[in-house]
């Protein structure tokens, strides 16, 4: 099969590498630096499997800056373009997808399109209605940043929307590359879109639950770890995904929870808005709790959301910084991926020893780098700390 993939971010690149093991794949991105790196077998993203597969595997994969010439003889186009949350419209901004679908449809109306981006519920159906077609499909993507290709090779499940008949071929494409014989689920596109938003909102709810438990424990002088271990031994709750943090963040959870809430419109609900609000309340609490130590200088250890991440998209630490900026306190940052001595008006000190001289170091996630000054590290990373 010849497959054109639009968007060489985490989703597009890992899909392209996965499928180019057995298919001809053309990867498209508007950023020519990314395209050049990929064609030189170098990864634009920090992801061990992507780096290794690009370098060492025999892939039938070429990257370009435009897909126009390839639509004519492609068998499938995969869209892995950004869908950022538009704060004003209170809905995902789908213009990248809208434009790509329009262009593809103008060139070849009968070319199957598979959307891998996260989209509002109803989007695929509405696009099929708009173009009087039934060949736009949706398959939710569940990969994690930094482990994107690993997760694509070991998918927890493969879900494809059922409409024009090509869904079985799409499911076969993904299943044949998976190393773990995953379950395949076919369902209406509105249902497949719902799966993605409800799954991410569940994860955000779980993070918020353990974070608010931790807030309670701090306020009452209790040991969060004991409480969390105690409740997580119940197999219905489970001992995983329960480590407190400053708040949930990253590219997906903040925007997907908001999109699900927006999709409810007038449908009765009371659970979803508080999940969004809880994250804000948590960050305010953490900032306040840090200030109880009366620091004059606060060192912010890393801006990335989690270990191994290569970007700062919607890291919880940014909101904490904004709150702390209002206090009479000096803020300094340690972030080795920032190649400058200033970041958004704050001083960056990438000499770790100099950085460690701050009165208090705040770290969403603990690292061995901080072992020697542990007594002045503020973190709620309870399970990694030991
Ligand atoms: N990052 C994740 O962990 C993850 C997981 C599941 C789903 N998703 C969803 O998948 C989608 C993509 O996420 P991502 O993290 O890969 O995004 P990303 O922002 O990392 O990558 C998107 C890429 O698309 C490129 N691009 C933008 N406009 C383009 C165009 N017109 N033509 C070609 N390329 C273009 C950008 O240069 C960028 O490289 C989003 O909807 C996201 O919500 C992401």
Automatic annotation (TrEMBL):
Annotated Pfam families: UDPG_MGDP_dh, UDPG_MGDP_dh_C, UDPG_MGDP_dh_N
Catalytic activity as recorded in UniProt: UDP-alpha-D-glucose + 2 NAD(+) + H2O = UDP-alpha-D-glucuronate + 2 NADH + 3 H(+)
Species assigned in the record: Anaerococcus porci
Enzyme Commission code: 1.1.1.22
Designated name of the protein: UDP-glucose 6-dehydrogenase
Entry annotation: catalytic residues: 252
Swiss-Prot/TrEMBL keywords: NAD, Oxidoreductase
Family, per entry: Belongs to the UDP-glucose/GDP-mannose dehydrogenase family.
Single GO biological process annotation from the record: polysaccharide biosynthetic process
Keyword Kinase: no
Taxonomic classification: Bacteria, Bacillati, Bacillota, Tissierellia, Tissierellales
GO molecular function, one term: UDP-glucose 6-dehydrogenase activity
List of residues binding substrate: 142-145, 196, 241-245, 249, 305-306, 386
Pathway: Nucleotide-sugar biosynthesis; UDP-alpha-D-glucuronate biosynthesis; UDP-alpha-D-glucuronate from UDP-alpha-D-glucose: step 1/1
Domain UDP-glucose/GDP-mannose dehydrogenase C-terminal: 299-385
Statement: the UniProt record of this protein carries the keyword RNA-binding: no
SUPFAM superfamilies documented for this protein: 6-phosphogluconate dehydrogenase C-terminal domain-like (SSF48179), NAD(P)-binding Rossmann-fold domains (SSF51735), UDP-glucose/GDP-mannose dehydrogenase C-terminal domain (SSF52413)
Binding-site positions, NAD(+): 29, 34, 83, 118, 145, 255, 313
């Amino acid at each position: 099969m010849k497959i054109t993939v639009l968007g060489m971010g985490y989703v597009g690149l890992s899909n392209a590498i996965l499928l180019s093991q057995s298919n001809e794949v053309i990867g498209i991105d508007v950023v020519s630096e990314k395209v050049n790196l990929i064609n030189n077998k170098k990864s634009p993203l920090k992801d061990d499997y992507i780096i290794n597969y690009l370098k060492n595997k025999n892939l039938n994969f070429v990257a370009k800056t435009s897909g126009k010439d390839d639509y004519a003889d492609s068998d499938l186009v995969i869209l892995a373009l950004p869908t950022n949350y538009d704060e004003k419209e209170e809905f995902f901004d789908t213009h990248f997808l809208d434009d790509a679908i329009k262009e593809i449809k103008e060139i070849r109306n009968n070319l199957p399109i598979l959307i891998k981006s996260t989209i509002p519920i109803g989007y695929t159906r509405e696009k099929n209605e708009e173009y009087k077609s039934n060949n736009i499909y949706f398959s939710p993507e569940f990969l994690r940043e930094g482990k994107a290709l690993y997760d694509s090779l070991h998918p927890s499940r493969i879900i494809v929307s059922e409409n024009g008949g090509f869904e079985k071929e799409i499911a076969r494409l993904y299943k044949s590359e998976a190393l773990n014989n995953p379950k395949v689920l076919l369902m209406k596109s509105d249902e497949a879109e719902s799966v993605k938003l409800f799954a991410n909102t569940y994860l955000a709810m779980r993070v918020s639950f353990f974070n608010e438990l931790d807030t309670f424990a701090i306020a009452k002088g209790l040991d969060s770890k004991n409480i969390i271990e105690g409740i997580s031994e119940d197999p219905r709750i489970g001992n995983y995904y329960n480590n407190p943090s400053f708040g949930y963040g990253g590219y997906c959870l903040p925007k997907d929870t908001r999109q699900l809430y927006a999709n409810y419109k007038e449908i009765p609900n009371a659970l979803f808005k508080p999940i969004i609000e809880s994250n804000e309340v948590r960050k305010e609490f953490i900032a306040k709790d840090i200030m109880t130590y009366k620091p004059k200088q606060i060192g912010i250890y890393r801006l990335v959301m989690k270990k191994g991440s290569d970007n700062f998209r919607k890291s919880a630490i940014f909101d904490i910084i904004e709150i702390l900026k209002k206090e009479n306190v000096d803020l300094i940052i340690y972030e080795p991926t920032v190649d400058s001595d200033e970041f958004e008006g704050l001083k960056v000190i990438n000499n770790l020893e100099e950085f460690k001289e701050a009165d208090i170091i705040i770290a969403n996630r603990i690292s061995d780098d901080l072992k020697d000054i542990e007594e002045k590290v503020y973190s709620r990373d309870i399970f990694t700390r030991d």
